[in-house]
């Protein structure tokens, strides 16, 4: 790996912040730094210096900010790999590591999300079949009367079939495949974390 020959944008920002923190602005020893000026309401806020415009240009040399805006910050590039080296040059190593970890984390969640979607789809498609969802079928076709849910006046007896919709919705999320999903997720977690 080659040694860096120039100064990166992140290093420029850190140098500027350090200079602004050490610069005196008054006679007293405590009057120094950008944070003190912000406390005294001289400045509302301070932002790091950027290398040029973020809009894409056809002429001249492109800067890291333009490259990141085009190939990383654009919604059209959601499926592409992250430009980690450009992120590191512009924001620094900590941010590049964070975004690399976040990308890895999201990729590792894709199989678990796919299994969850399969379980949900199975529950949705078999919700009305008596063979799979016999409990809801029994509830929906029942003639039994349930006791009131409260002890105050006005609470009436209800037929059990009034809970038919809730029973079907419960089956969509709590069907036999969710047990397999829980086991697969536990093994997946143990293997990869």
From TrEMBL:
The keyword Membrane applies. This is Anoctamin. It is found in: Cell membrane; Membrane. One of its GO terms (molecular function) is protein dimerization activity. InterPro entries: Anoct_dimer (IPR032394), Anoctamin (IPR007632), Anoctamin_TM (IPR049452). Belongs to the anoctamin family. Residues 87-190 form the Anoctamin transmembrane domain. The chain crosses the membrane at residues 98-125. Residues 2-83 form the Anoctamin dimerisation domain. It comes from the Eukaryota. It is a multi-pass membrane protein. It comes from Acanthoscelides obtectus. One of its GO terms (cellular component) is plasma membrane.
